UniProtKB/TrEMBL annotation:
This is Selenocysteine lyase/cysteine desulfurase. InterPro entries: Aminotrans_V_dom (IPR000192), PyrdxlP-dep_Trfase (IPR015424), PyrdxlP-dep_Trfase_major (IPR015421), PyrdxlP-dep_Trfase_small (IPR015422). The keyword Lyase applies. It comes from Ancylobacter tetraedralis. Keywords: Lyase, Pyridoxal phosphate. The keyword Lyase applies. Residues 85-395 form the Aminotransferase class V domain. GO terms for molecular function: lyase activity.
Amino acid sequence: MTTQTTPQRPPHLKTAPDDEAYWLAIRATMEPMYVNTQLVNTRRGAAPRLVRDRVRELVDLSLAYELDEYEPMRDLKESGSSLAIRQLLGDYFGADADEMALTRNAMEGIATVLNGVALKPGDEVLATRFCYDSNLAILRQRALREGIVLRFVELPFGIASDEAILAAFAAAITERTRLISFPHVVANTGLVMPVRQIAALARARGAFTLVDGAHSAGHIAFRLDELGCDAYATCLHKWMYGPRGTGFLHVRREKIADVWPLFASWSGKPADSIEKFEEVGTVFKALPASIPEAIAFNRGIGQAEKSARLRFLRDRWAGRLREHERIRLLTDIDADPGTGFGGFVIDGLEGEDFARTLREDFAINVRAFAMDEDPAMRGIHLSPGLPNTVEEVDRFVEATFAILARSHNSLMRAG
C-alpha cells in the first residue's frame, strides 16, 4: 500500500511548489485557452481573469472619452504612463520610479537604448549569438548607417558556468567597446547570465550595458538596483501575465542623460528625465491602466513562489529525461538561480520530427529551435507556465519515452 504524504513547504515559501491543489486554483483564475497542451510559454502568458476583466471594463472608455477637463483617465499621460504605475513597477523590481519608463513592449525599450547610445564610426558593440534577431537587426542597421562595429562574445551553447561566461566577456572587450547587449535569460536553454558581474566588468572598462529582460521579469527573483546594469528592458505580457502591449525600460539615474529618446521630447523634458522615453504618442490606455491588476496578481502569489513552481515543473520533466541515454540536456537544472526553461537534444532524432510527432500523436506542443546566428545550435525547448499542471508535464515525459521507443525500434530494423 502506498502512503500519500503531504507536500512539504520550504521554510522561505508561503506555498509549496508541489501543492497541486493550490496551483490548480491559480490555473482556474487564469483560464488558459489552448487546444494542444501548451508547454511553450515564451511568447506570451495567459493573463489572469482579473486583468482581462479590467481591460474589458476600460475598452469602451478608452475608445470613447473626450480630452477635456473631465477626462476619466486624467491620471494617465498620453503614453498611458503615470507616476503611480512607475512606482508600482519600481517597487516590484527594485528601482526608483524616476528610473522606470513605461513602454509598449520589450522591443521598444531595447530599440530606444540600442539606437540612443551615442556611437561614432569604429566604436564597437558587443552582443551574443543568443540575442534576439530583432535586437541584432538594429545594431546591423547602425553598422551600415554609422560605421560602428558589431562583434560577438563567443559563449558556450547550453550549460556554462558564470566563470566561463565572465571570462568570455572579459576577453571580448577592447578599448573600442562602448556598448554591451545581452539577454538576462537565454530563451532556448534557460541559461541565466551573471548580469551583476558582467555589468561591473563593463563599467570598469567604460562600456554601457543593456540587458534584455524579456524572459527574466516575473520569472526569476532579482532587484534592478542589485543587477547594476545601465539599462534593462522587458515586457509584462510573458512571465508577469500582464496585458499585451505593456513593458518598461529601466535606466540607471546617472545614465539617463547618455541615452537619446526614440522620439524627440516635445514637452521639453530635460536630458536626465526618465519621462523623455515615454513621449511616444497616443496609446490604448486600457492596457497600461490594467498594470496594477497584473502587479496585484503577482504579489498575491509571490515572486519566490512563482519562481519555485516554474523550476519544479522543469525539474519534473528534465530530471527524468536526463537519465535517458539518448537525451542530452542543454540546461543545468542544478544551477541557482534557475528558470522554468529547459532545452535538450535527442541522439538520432531531429528536433522538428520529435516536435511534430508529439503534436500530432499526443496533442502536446513543444518547440524545435535553431539559433538564427548559428543553425548548428539546435535543440528542443520547453517552458511550462503557471497554468500548466503536473499531469500535463508527466504526460509529456511518457509521450517522449514512447517516441524514443518507436525511434529505437525503427533504427534497429534499419540496422
